[in-house]
Write a structure and sequence with these properties.
Blueprint: H1 2-27, E1 29-30, E2 33-34, H2 35-49, H3 54-62, H4 70-79, H5 90-99, H6 104-115, H7 121-131, H8 135-162
Antiparallel strand pairs: 1-2
Length: about 160
């Protein structure tokens, strides 16, 4: 029972600061753009190599505390709202994604990267605790992430070669 509370405490200790960071990124503007826009624009060239865009890659990074917030962050970024959004209509979600340049390749690569990227921060903290240090937690972050990046790049290369 105590382990349950400790895991919950680890989750809260990561989720609250992450929520603050997401809010700051979306709501603090420098000039005419939010910090989120600057980060997404910076990451965009690399994300394009993966068949994604800068907002998608930014959402994965900001989604480190909880992988289930990646899509709401993507939608928040595309809609330009300063808060996470929840939509019930898959048709509305699809329309937003298509309006923002999603193609079949984008969808495939988002699925690939969803399967092959770093685990959430609570899992990484648990790995660190159980392994007694950061070595295995860092490896658990890097190994799937590098695989995901490479597979997305190969998929994009093949797609562009065929199309």
């Amino acid at each position: 029972m105590i382990e349950h509370y400790l895991s919950f405490g680890r989750a809260i200790s990561v989720a609250v600061p992450a929520g603050i960071v997401i809010w700051i990124f979306a709501n603090i503007h420098i000039g005419n753009a939010s910090i989120l826009n600057y980060v997404a624009n910076f990451l965009d060239p690399f994300a394009r190599l993966m068949g994604l865009d800068g907002y998608i890659l930014t959402a994965f990074l900001l989604g480190l505390p909880a992988n289930e917030i990646v899509l709401p962050i993507i939608l928040m970024s595309y809609i330009g709202q300063g808060t996470l959004v929840s939509m019930e209509s898959s048709v509305a979600i699809g329309q937003i994604l298509v309006q923002n340049g999603w193609t079949l390749l984008t969808g495939i690569n988002v699925m690939i990267f969803t399967l092959l990227h770093f685990p959430c921060s609570t899992t990484l903290l648990t790995i660190k605790k159980e392994a007694g240090g950061w070595k295995w937690a860092i490896l658990s972050f890097l190994l799937p992430t590098v695989c995901g990046i490479l597979i997305c790049m190969v998929t994009t290369g093949i797609w562009n070669f065929i199309m």
